[in-house]
Amino acid sequence: MELCPLIKNILLLDSEGKRIAVKYYSDDWPTNSAKEAFEKAVFAKTQKTNARTDAEITMFDNYVVVYKFVQDLHFFVTGGENENEIILAAVLQGFFDAVGLLLRGTVDKKEALENLDLILLCLDEIVDGGIILETDANVIAGKVASHSMDAGAPLSEQTITQALATAREHLTRSLLK
Amino acid sequence: MAQPLVKKDDDRDDEADYSPFLGIEKGAVLQEARVFNDPQLDPRRCSQVITKLLYLLNQGETFTKVEATEVFFAVTKLFQSKDIGLRRMVYVMIKELSPSADEVIIVTSSLMKDMTSKTDMYRANAIRVLCRITDGTLLTQIERYLKQAIVDKNPVVASAALVSGIHLLQTNPEIVKRWSNEVQEAVQSRAALVQFHALALLHQIRQNDRLAVNKLVSSLTKGSVRSPLAQCLLIRYTSQVIRESANNNQAGDRPFYDFLEGCLRHKAEMVIFEAARAITELNGVTSRELTPAITVLQLFLSSSKPVLRFAAVRTLNKVAMTHPMAVTNCNIDMESLISDQNRSIATLAITTLLKTGNESSVDRLMKQITNFMSDIADEFKIVVVEAIRSLCLKFPLKHRSLMNFLSNILREEGGFEYKKAIVDSIVILIRDIPEAKESGLLHLCEFIEDCEFTYLSTQILHFLGIEGPKTSDPSKYIRYIYNRVHLENATVRAGAVSTLAKFGAMVDTLKPRVFVLLRRCLFDNDDEVRDRATLYINTLGGDGAVVETGEDVKEFLFGSLDIPLVNLENSLKNYEPSEESFDINSVPKEVKTQPLAEKKAPGKKPTGLGASPAGPPSTVDAYEKLLSSIPEFANFGKLFKSSAPVELTEAETEYAVNVVKHIFDGHVVFQYNCTNTIPEQLLENVTVIVDASEAEEFAEVASKPLRSLPYDSPGQTFVAFEKPEGVPAVGKFSNMLRFIVKEVDPSTGEAEDDGVEDEYQLEELEVVAADYMLKVGVSNFRNAWETMDADCERVDEYGLGPRESLAEAVNAVINLLGMQPCEGTEVVPNNSRSHTCLLSGVYIGNVKVLVRLQFGLDGPKDVAMKLAVRSEDEAVSDAIHEIVASG
After folding, report:
1. What does the record list as coiled-coil region(s) (chain B) (predicted)?
2. What ipTM was assigned to the predicted interfaces of this complex?
3. Among B29, B233, B281, B630, which has the highest number of CB atoms less than 10 A from its own CB?
4. Distance (Å, rounded) from C-alpha B321 to C-alpha B328?
């Protein structure tokens, strides 16, 4: 187990450090108050940094935390002290982009809360018990969206096309950068 | 980029007000969950309620047992709906509720149906849920499906089964190990993540079989692993194989190095980095092996991505500790990172530069750091201060600029930990670089003029008292010290009084002036301050004349207290007022070895001002009490040392016996601690027959049998020997346990009247030279060494022959001498070819001994050692050499 890359937690907080959706995969934080303390500390440590264009990174209490912000949403992925930073960053990027696709480009707290089911499913598709399931945002979003699509629920056939369009746009943007 | 900040304030009101979960309440949501029971299910509505429940759990809300059960049963009803989206939420919900075993049965059949469904999404998720909540019994039922799923053509299903396998392996290894063939097939999958998960599981199944892991690695490193994550795993497994095979392999070609090096050219950054890091962490890595790894890390340093820069600089920082030269090529890139937006990266860059920098670049570097220091947090500053300290020790000639830097930052704002780090560093530099002493002391004096931390003020005053009088012009410090008496709180004032007195005692010309100042302190409003002033005035020769203060007075007032404070405290507590006054010599000096937990704490940092660690209360007290209560041993005098218990029987034998060796000046007492582990036996009249034919200088004088030894209640028997006084006699003793055994009726617990005499052979026991040595540490080895008379120094060289490693040789010598390693020198850094180890102890007859050991590798395995001993008695110095020569 110890040789396998492990994710300790994935956090999505708002611009005041409050939880939107969090998932812990490790026993390092056994109680809710321990979790909240960790979130508070991480938030305080990162809040002043600019993590809007590229993912940022910090060391913290023997954890490596990679993070990225957009609008009033703060995304975090935590790994152990000796984890490969770039793997953690890949997970973060997968989560970040998948949420972007699922929220159809309007990525903010309001939209995230309104589609919390999608965010929770998204977390469920990225990591299982600390082990990375998938890091490709398109695959993750596809898996989450397809479930809803089959049901004829909010995301329709059209939204998938839209989602893919957003993905394409996203790609061109990153290429132009 | 700053726009969200501004914008947020504008429309903050409506944004903060709106949330779909505003005013959400657990009770209401649980009520809402009743819709799950409707005969006509509304999937959208149900999904929303589940989302609300999950939201509550996510916010840290907990459900009582009853609530959870209720929700669980309601949720199971939702399996009736064919709505895929809703089913998906049901899966997540069940995992979150983590149902109990009897609840699991309810959903088992539904989940097993989904597991065999045609819809891939159902199969994948049902597997994950079922494996998460199941216990071992169910596993055999679904094993068949899981094996199929592992080789399922849909990668999501295969991954789900494999990842579940990884989790299940922790609890049900036997079952999961049977899936080996399927997992092996999955390793060949074309789907990237399936390959990754399969590799992870396969390795875990085989991890205890070294040969199998070896084979796995050799076959895969030749083939093509597609997924970057799988490739990272393979690199980790490869390094493990390299590490484990390193012991058998003599220097030469390292297996699999080519594979690692090849990975440096991989297209995925995570693989490149994983490989580079693996190479830098190889045991005994050569600079040739390092070069390609350093080159790719150097490229990462100028990446636009902070994560890459951080990863690279963190790894290079570690490399710089062991191979500073290898990293110097990156110095230019490193320097540009000092201004990095990300302060973690900047700090790592600076500390790396400080490790790799050469003498000529120090000044330039310091200029850059000065700008940098103002805008980083204290925790980073401490790291920098520590790096500067080691740099200064490396380049003593640069002490002026480095000391200036330290004193500048000492004047700036900062918390206690940070200030302490700076003061500690200055103190260490003063100690180790004689030229830096005067300026360092003045910096410290200036600091205490405006220091808000009582602890630091008193520590600095104490240090001034030791070092100040030895400087060329001690008088210039008096003003700073006396100012404390006017301006500070009582604790600092008392410290200042002691320091003043030290100046008076050590520097005769200053004495009259110091006395004037001390007399003024007699009117202080604090008891402690007045008491100290009175004591010093009276003991130092109160008339204030220029007379020399007697050595013994100095020793009494300012000599180091070589007794652990805890022991002194205990002895004082036990002392009962009587005719006989308290004798400080009766306080045991043994410092009990520190508990493991404390040892683990980082002991690397040299303690700056800290006094020698006071040990916890020792068991010596207990032994001493026990022995003095036995009349036969009462006249043996003071107990010098008691050894740790030595086992004389194997574990789990009928009788467990260990022995403690008590060393007195002219006697040795063996205390045999016996335990009877047979419930049906009672032992009586237990003695140990000791054959001392191989210990010529010892003669048995007394033996104290143990009356009775019932089952499972330990008892002691003693044997005492006489030996030549003060001589560290050694010898071998063979032991035989002799006793009368009586049968015990287990039901009544009563023993029969008649017993049978019996014997039980114990293992041999040795009294060795180390038994005559007390482990007593010194806080400052260098000082202690220099105060010891050089005439009593004995130096010689020894060849220790081929040894497993340098560390093993160092340990062997430490154990042979039984002395206390000082300043953490018992730890031998990896790969070092030479090592210096400092030991201190007290030899029988209360003779202080200091030992400086220098080890060097001579050829591939041969260890050579230079042993320098200083002690208060040259005969003892010779004796130490004899121990080593014969050991």
Report:
1. none
2. 0.84
3. B233
4. 12
